[in-house]
Amino acid sequence: MGAIDVEAKTTVYVVLACFIAASGGLLFGYDGGCTGGVESMKQFAQMWFPSTADVQDTDFYCKFNDKPLQAYSSVMHFTGAVASLPASYVTQHFGRTTSMKVAGTAYILGSILQASASRTIAMLFIGRILWGIGVGFGDHCAFIYTSEMAPPRWRGRLNTLVQCGTITGIVIASAINIGTSRIVWGWRISLALAAVPGSILLLGGIFLPDTPNSLVERGHVDRGRAVLRRVRGTPDVDEEFSSILIANKAAQHSENPWRSIGRRRNRPQLVLAIAMPFLQQWSGVNAVSFFAPQIFAGVSAFKTNGIEGPLYAALLVNGVQWIATIVTVICVDKVGRRSLLISGSILGLAADFAVAIVFSLSYSGGPYLPTSASIAAIVLISLYSISFGFSWGPIGWLIPSEVHDLHTRSAGQSITVFTQLLSGAIVTQVFLMMMCNLKWGVFVFFGLWQTVALVFTVLLVPETRGVPIEKTANFVRAHWLWRHVTYPGGHIPLEDMDTRDNRVSESIRAGNANRLSEDDAPNGSSPYAAGKAKPFAEGKAGAVTLQQPMMQSLAPTRHKKLPARRSV
Ligand SMILES: OC[C@H]1O[C@](O)(CO)[C@@H](O)[C@@H]1O
């Protein structure tokens, strides 16, 4: 029995399309890297937040504990969280590329407003609100676009490009800030340059094709097939296209996706959609990415370098994260998601606790840490940053974006973007206040969240590497623990067994669906549920292959014999 490799070619075209879509991440990153640095520039601080402009003698932990400054930092996140909800509607009903256009346009307008702000601080805040809209829409569509365009074997790699875009944006903005901090009104240049990633995304929205899944979902079946042929670089796409059609057919519920996602059968996906971005943010990454210049402004090793010293430290910490993220882009489809998450959590929590120990032992009041402690802090914060870069940074986005059925995918992605940005907003808003009150304890706090993330991953995160996107939802439902949440008694119904198990698919082909469940699943337990059958077969180099009978069992006529799907 021949196995059919559904891995189509990974064409230059699809890689390029995903690169452009990944600039949805660039918007987010540029914002993060730019804002922290701009806030630490003297002219900007004197003009807009005068109480933070002269902090020479203030306590190390409390230097930047300024309410308006925190509000300016976090307003982008709050708006982004809110914007991700309408983004779901637009992405689902008007296409992924329409959301790209909205995101790019809002971001460009936000840059113009902030860079030209004078007299009233409202211009700064409105500009940042527009950036929030850009990030809410941009993150929403970028992850869905890359997941749907990518062939299964490359999905992890292409999807993690978005986070790679984010950290690239942070690094570029950190480098630009070093240059602009030497120029009078340099902060305006930093803010104006944000229009560049906005323009890339806008042009992408105008010139890129929408995904085959979105086109089919919106009734453009022929265009969907044509795009699939173009991105796969072959006319022979019938098998993949038929699974998109079937997934679309299954998705044509009359039920509202927001209601569907709350159903019992979608509970694991919903929990992953919320927990992954939540845990990603509560590991404290924004404290490091956005506030690195502020943290390092209190570190004695940099005090002689004026404003530039902390900016260099920020560049270093984000630069190592950038390298770690690229490593994951390269290896995520080989190594798998779980092992990266687990090792990242362990390294991250160790680094957090170690930073807390260094700070607690060396702090004796006053504005600066001793030099040896400063160096230790930079090394440890860099280690934390590396751990985030190869694990929760990219994979905290990847898993939630690939686990939903087509019908609930856009709503699910909104929930993820909403949770991510809301958590980011809260961390951003309270971090400087927490640092002032908890002092080194803030790093213990973040370390504890990393411990929660570790336990969550071990128990509840399924390994979705190589599973075709049309099948990940059933794959997750069948996870050894989740299946007890998804199905009454933990028994997987036959219609959800769209696995590569030959026995299942051959029996379906032979019209023995009912016999299979009686013979092979005594007491109602299925061979899959009982762990006898392997859900997915792996070919060479981790490529997932579809078995011939499985493909035939996917044909709509074969489903006639299957029991009707219940809403659980
Ligand atoms: O790389 C760090 C950055 O990435 C994000 O997690 C977004 O994916 C941000 O919250 C953070 O600042």
TrEMBL record:
CDD domains from the UniProt entry: MFS_STP
Gene3D superfamilies (alphabetical): MFS general substrate transporter like domains
Pfam families associated with the record: Sugar_tr
Keyword Glycosyltransferase: no
Statement: the UniProt record of this protein carries the keyword Transmembrane helix: yes
Major facilitator superfamily (MFS) profile domain mapped to chain residues: 17-465
Region (Disordered): 510-533, 547-568
Keyword set, alphabetical order: Membrane, Sugar transport, Symport, Transmembrane, Transmembrane helix, Transport
Family: Belongs to the major facilitator superfamily. Sugar transporter (TC 2.A.1.1) family.
Name of protein: Major facilitator superfamily (MFS) profile domain-containing protein
